[in-house]
Amino acid sequence: MPTTSCPLDCPDACSLDVTVTDGRVTKVRGDHRNPLTRGVICAKVARLPEHLYGAHRVLEPMIRTGPKGSGTFAPIGWDEALDLARDRINAAIAAHGAESVLPCSYGGSNGVLTEGSFDRRFFARLGATRLGRTLCAAPSGAVRTHMTGRFPGVALADVVHAELIVVWGNNPHATSIHFLDRLREARRRGARLIVVDPRAIPLCRDADQHLALRPGTDLPVALSLIRWFFETGRADHAALDRWTTGADALRARAAPWTFERAARVAGVDPSELERLALAFAGAHPAVLRCGWGVERSRCGGSAVAALLALPLVAGKQGVRGGGFVMSNSGAVPSHGDVVEPPTRRVNLARLGRALTELTPPVSVLWVYNNNPLQTVPDQERVRRGLSRDDLFTVVHDAIFTDTARYADLLLPATVFPEHDDLAPSYGAHLVSRLTPTAPAPGLARTNAEVFVAMEARLGLSRPGDTTTADEEARRLLTATPHLVEGLDRDGVAGPYAAPPIPYVDVLPATPDARTHLVPAALDAEAPAGLYGWIEDPATELAPLALISPARAETVSSTFGQLAGPAPLEVHPDDAAARGIRDGDAVRLWNELGAVEVFARVTEKVRPGVVSLAKGLWGHHTRNGSASNAVIPDALTDVGEGPAYFDARVEVARAAPPTP
Length: 659
Ligand code: SF4
What we know:
alpha/beta; Phosphorylase Kinase, domain 1; Rossmann fold; Dimethylsulfoxide Reductase, domain 2; six-stranded mixed beta barrel; globular; binds iron/sulfur cluster
């Protein structure tokens, strides 16, 4: 039975058994080559045959024949399509220079070969505008770069050794089912569980404590805990002296944050903060699992930094199952080695501005592994940009996404069981080798094939270039020979014989091998300094905090064509104040736009907070917009990530549909 691995934007990178019948994938199951995922996969990838062969699959190159956004296309041959793309790129360069070409990709496939090798080589040689791929992990990535360098956290498999697990801003039922496995095993061994999240996520049913913070207040709460450890004499000064720099500066910045002040900002009782502090202080080992919800607000980078620092201050590091874990991607090689020229850079989080305001303008947009109309903030501005008559948009995608409706040229792409790739996991310390298990339907081509063909058409090919994904995989792996044998044998390999214990088996990759608690670069970048607080952006007209968490049916917007709609979750107090009943059609809006969906009145969200899942497509809502229609393109304090959870909105019952 053919095997491969899942490269989707998920920490787990499950290894997969693929059943192929008559040249088509008919079943996908987990296999046991990945020791973290142990034969279990999520329901969405179990439905992969519907994704591969469903009505939304793009089967042949197409050219737009109707207005942008109408989704009206006619077939065109591959040669004709790529010649047209070449001509439009040459025309854009002649008129405005090569920076008028903008690549637009993200985590539709997290593979190294489908994103980060041939594509970057092509756009670098072209001299195109560079893309800041910031939608997720940019703030936490900046924090990691400056505080620890590439440095793994607690291995997810080691969570079973913890006496206490604090899950902060992470919903593993939706995004990390194998962490959930280990968490349950730890619970069976007697571990306590604390959840910090504005919503009552499924994990709360089993938690000893649930702290429902107002969105964006993780920073003051984390600082109040740090302050408490210092002020009560519980800080581990020996560990701080041995493994860190900047402890005194961190202590000074945490000093104003008493439990009372932090609790007032976060909308919780101060006693709840003390309860959490006492539980964390008294448990050995204790692990703090930080999720990506923490970074998605104006102080998100500082919040992640404070949570990274907290287990060090509390003396939880240096034992198996104790410390901090967020991403473990630092353990294995990730992307290729393309050196990009110093052309202008566009932050993907501000794609709408780039498409509508830049001079020289973006004349050619090349979208791949990405559905930016549904995943980038300020959706209506992105839509206006994609609607420009003078913009030539290429979309190379396997699925007819909402963004594809705005393509001038729509090219059929392969999906991961149909091509070669290398997929690093950011949950386990592993990398997987993907090989094709079945032919792609129709005329789909890989990213590698398309970018190599475009290099040839534009005179950018060079002697010695790799031209196939397999060649490129072997070239990249020469830098990591210790992985090759395992990858050739099992398709899955990692650099460690056993999960490393941070600060024991592996030290931070900083020049002095210490964690820098207040790095100068982050301090200079953050508008209020690192750990500086910025007040909530709510206004009288937009008093409710909107969060847009992940849901189990999709990976961001991937699989959106198969998923059903999602409701807006509203607390009963907020619903009653607005005359909203469960199941009502509601409109949420602010100065940027509006979304119309159905309401679910529920105590799962705290008062003052509404929740609408991320990754929705136009067909999921009454007006074709998604949560990004009301999410501003404001950036986080460090890392220039989108502050998705800083959207503030008002909600009301919507007018009934016109008969
Ligand atoms: S999306 Fe995540 S849980 Fe699902 S198969 Fe892929 S790696 Fe595994």
